[in-house]
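Lab notebook, bench 4. The sequencing result for the construct came back, and we need a structural model before the next group meeting so we can plan mutations. Quick request posted to the team channel:

Model the 3D structure of this chain.
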Amino acid sequence: MSVRIEAPRTTRRARPASHRPMSPPVPTIEDFAPAPSPDGRRVAFLSDRAGTPGVWVCDVDAGPPVALPVGDEPVLAVSWSPDGKWLACVVAPGGAPRTELWVVRPDGTRRRQVAGFGRRSATLAGWLPDGAVLAVTETDERGQALLVDAGTGQRQVLAKGDLLTLLDVTPDAGVALLRRGPRNARWLELLDVATGERRRLVPDTGRGSTDQGWFGPDGTSVLARTDAYSELAALVRVDLTRPEQPPTRLAGRPDAELEHVTPSADGQRGALLWNTYGGRSELSLLDFASGVQRAVAAPGEVLGDAAFAADGGLLCLTAQGPVRPREVWLVDPSTGAPRPLRSDTAPRTDDAGVAPQLVDLRARDGLPLSGWLYRPAGPGPWPTAISLHGGPEAQERPGYNPLFQALVAQGVAVFAPNVRGSSGFGRSFVAADNLAGRYGAIADVAACADFLVDAGVARPGQLGCLGRSYGGYLVLAVLVNFPGLFAAGVAECGISDFRTFFAETEPWIAAAAVSKYGDPQRDGDLLRDLSPLTHIDRLDVPVLLIHGANDTNVPAGESAQVAEALAARGVPHGHLVLDGEGHDFLARDNAEAARTATTSWLTRHLAATATVVG
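Done. Here's the predicted structure in token form:
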């Protein structure tokens, strides 16, 4: 067993483990997704301090935050216009995956919807410089790229197509940068707005994906974050005046994946977020012209949501850690000095809980795996839960997770692995579970269980598994493929039958998922065998099913049909449906209800098993 034990790189440390059971952490507010005003004097951000994510605004130097009246629906993103006159808000009605785009004045007036009407879902690429024109993608059966004037609501459709997303537009709106393609196989196209002509930016390498891109400051180049040319994602520049030339590599590391790049408004520099082994973040500032890159002290173990003020004098981001909820930090780009946006004096609970250990192990076929282990106080072995993240192109990272801390407080160890298909470990690893490779991902969970027992962490008969979204699918898949290995499970918003999933999910979600899961026609036999419902007769342990009533990503029927099948066979199960929620549980009360139900289910059933096995 190879275990890394590293102190969390935060300004606050976890409490030392004691010999008494810890109290579960008290729910606390989280602030995230900052959007600085153009002059850098104010910051809009999202917060669940009122119970559901909404928009709050505060001065950088002093004063409490003020809630912006943006309606009762949860807000997923906010962005300040370059002229300072508007805030754009991405809203999720009923918490569902379908989103709408609304604009509002910074004083809360003139709020109205500008995109995402009917069944269309709207996402925001950004603003054209020096004004209030939004670059937007609307998606239903197909995608369409458009420009929307925040003041008048006037819309200009630039392009339509399958699996299409608008990334950027030149200042004169003459050329647009589009992203095309399914998951893990995306590419960039240039669109001549006047003629409608489109051309692929670079030749197909036959591997990798390009997910982020934008025009350089002079409009004669495109900068892109891609793993099409290297195992770990890097930043490249494409010279539009010399299309025959291969891309130039601007920034890349052999020990870390480039997770995201945020360019400044003038296009002269960018904030680079690096994903180091295991999922910890590092931050650097890169001068695009000189290539000089400067490291900046990371104010938390996991960073995200980086955004420059339009004048370039302020960089905002979100920081979090295992014992520290998300909060907004400010970075001075000239000095690299970070400081928190102390928006109120509300008590926080970020000094409670345990820090995890980064653990290395091997899959049954020898593939290197890793994960984060949260140990309760006192000697092991313990009742243990394996937690499986969603995606699958996501990653278990040492961020804030109150569910893990609640389980540990009840004496249950948690192991959160990154099985094959997870991001953060390179192009090959993220594609290793495509199609029939999914059998390997399912077996990885069993390998984790074996490892935990052999290492003395878990006791046989006291292993549980939990997961949400793709992780919920993996829970069901492991329970039917490895009967007897786990004593209980919790599957949240998980696919149970690929046939019903593809038939009932949003059309653009289904189209993008074919490259990852398989084509429901061509790969019908494979998808049938990979569907947990096909083998539901093998599931004979207590399972809790949790779903949002308004989920249209993984429709709520996916859990309902499992509950029905288990009820028919008399298998103990629970079925919790949360009203007013979609795929992600955005209301704090509902998220807490799901956590409480999960903690109660696992502690009860794993402890009950302990009385049997001794």
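The first strand starts at residue 2 and ends at 4.
Will bring this to the meeting.
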